[in-house]
Amino acid sequence: MAGTLAGQPADEPGRRAAAAAAVRSVSAGAAKPRVAVVGAGIAGLVAARTLAEAGCKVTVFEKSRGPGGRCATRRSEVGPFHQGVAGFGAQSAAFRDTLAVWQAQGWAAADASGRWAGRPTMNALARHLAEGLALRTEHTVRPPQRNADGTWQLATAEHGTLPGTFDVLLLAVPAEQTRPLCADSPSLLQALAGVHGQPCWTLMLGWPPGVAAPALPDPARVAASPVLAEVVDVSALPGPAPTAGPGWQRWVLHATAAWSAAALEQRPEDAVVALLAALQNLTEPGPPVPAPAHAVAHRWRYAQVAEPAAAACGWDAALRLGSCGDAWGGGAAALAARLSAGPGPAAVPEGVERAWLSGRALAQAMLAGA
């Protein structure tokens, strides 16, 4: 089955069958499984909401102060910045149908080119998906303990051992953070062994009213830059005018993965200088870039995955342990998504869509007793 990992030890069939029966009891009216979801990005929230709507008792743990992952919006005195994903595409029919529902509800919209974003800001997607869920922020989950009865005991860096146990543990964090948490599952470790997240430095710039920001650089010159991968005028994105910093021109610069990796451990203030210099190079021989009144750099250590695992998700039924996120969905799942979009060459869906597909697939695998 797509998204289900093989490779369990030969003495596991009995435990696997017992785990499957326990999960299938969700629809039979038995005790509802207690599910812990680690990570409140798109994948984790989609999995959590799907399971909660099926009657499971779900708790989501997130190490940051709020949900969203890279679908993030940073608020500032000069207005909001989409410091992560500025927009995303939709290939699969299922994801397009969901986006149409979100659009009707007013928290997603597409631009003229068909690129989607949250409305009024990118993190609206996570806020709405998290509504009604038991979400515990600032909880950095440590490697879990599996008890003799098969339940999971969690502890966090901030709060120590947490009260209660969980029947199911789902990991919706980058592969580098997943591997220490799924050490009990050889199959999950094997599937994620070659999956690595690429870093990205971003620079948020702001010019006040009355100061003319430079014209956006030629996309062809950006594409040829060894430093900058994208320059986005977030003040020009659709949506209501910000209540903070009205009239400010706001840009977000995304550095290339190669440059970000080479500069991974540099200080944010040094990243500001280097990325501003790269922007200046792209605008020459035109007028110099006026000094921004607001310049803040942010490092994403795991921004995107170049080569995701082939399956839609990872589900170890014997351990009741799963993994989802944009680290998955690079193989058959991507092909199925592309074929459902119509004729054309198969392509791996973008990270946001992979995360959505993966979170849904993992929840479905668990509910089916896969």
UniProtKB/TrEMBL annotation:
What name goes with this protein?
FAD-dependent oxidoreductase
List, alphabetically, the Pfam families matched.
NAD_binding_8 (PF13450)
| PANTHER family reported in the protein's UniProt record | FAD/NAD(P)-BINDING OXIDOREDUCTASE FAMILY PROTEIN, FAD_NAD(P)-BINDING OXIDOREDUCTASE FAMILY PROTEIN
